TrEMBL record:
Family, as annotated: Belongs to the complex I NDUFB4 subunit family.
Record function comment: Accessory subunit of the mitochondrial membrane respiratory chain NADH dehydrogenase (Complex I), that is believed not to be involved in catalysis. Complex I functions in the transfer of electrons from NADH to the respiratory chain. The immediate electron acceptor for the enzyme is believed to be ubiquinone.
Protein name: NADH dehydrogenase [ubiquinone] 1 beta subcomplex subunit 4
Major subcellular location class: mitochondrion
Membrane-spanning intervals of the chain: 86-104
Keyword Membrane listed: yes
UniProt organism field: Triplophysa rosa
Location relative to the cell: Mitochondrion inner membrane
Known partners and oligomeric status: Complex I is composed of 45 different subunits.
UniProtKB keywords: Electron transport, Membrane, Mitochondrion, Mitochondrion inner membrane, Respiratory chain, Transmembrane, Transmembrane helix, Transport
Domain of life: Eukaryota
Membrane topology summary: Single-pass membrane protein
GO CC entries: mitochondrial inner membrane
Top-level taxonomy: Eukaryota, Metazoa, Chordata, Craniata, Vertebrata
Signal peptide: none
């Protein structure tokens, strides 16, 4: 920690804060140790169930269940249909298709009219 120099525009990382290590109360440390012990017991129980060669039932993993629920039910949506997103979707998704259709159709119609009038010069000759 002695060699660490703080950046002028950034705060000190929480892991390098001396108050994080030295100024903790005994109750807080005991609570952290209890939580770590509970996590270790749950992890050991899951690993024993997972590595049991005689198991017949499905192992319930609460974290996996929560993740599956959140993924299927979209409880934290990244996209919400609002008038703004609908307008942007139309502008960037639908309008370019119509513009390209219009450009290609008018170019094709002009070329066809020139061919019918006999004034179209083919840039690439297929036969000599």
């Amino acid at each position: 920690m002695a060699d660490y120099k703080e950046a002028p525009l950034a705060t000190r990382p929480k892991t390098l804060d001396p108050a994080e290590y030295f100024n903790l109360s005994h109750d807080y440390r005991r609570a952290e140790e209890d939580r770590a012990a509970l996590r270790a017991r749950l992890k050991r129980q899951y690993m024993v169930q997972l590595n049991n060669p005689h198991r017949k039932e499905l192992i319930e993993d609460p974290a996996l269940t929560r993740w599956t629920y959140a993924r299927t039910n979209n409880i934290y949506p990244n996209f919400r249909p609002t008038p703004k997103t609908s307008l942007l979707g139309g502008l960037f998704g639908v309008v370019p298709l119509f513009v390209l259709y219009f450009v290609f159709k008018t170019d094709r119609d002009k070329r066809e009219a020139k061919i019918k009038a006999g004034t179209f010069e083919r840039p690439y000759k297929l036969s000599s």
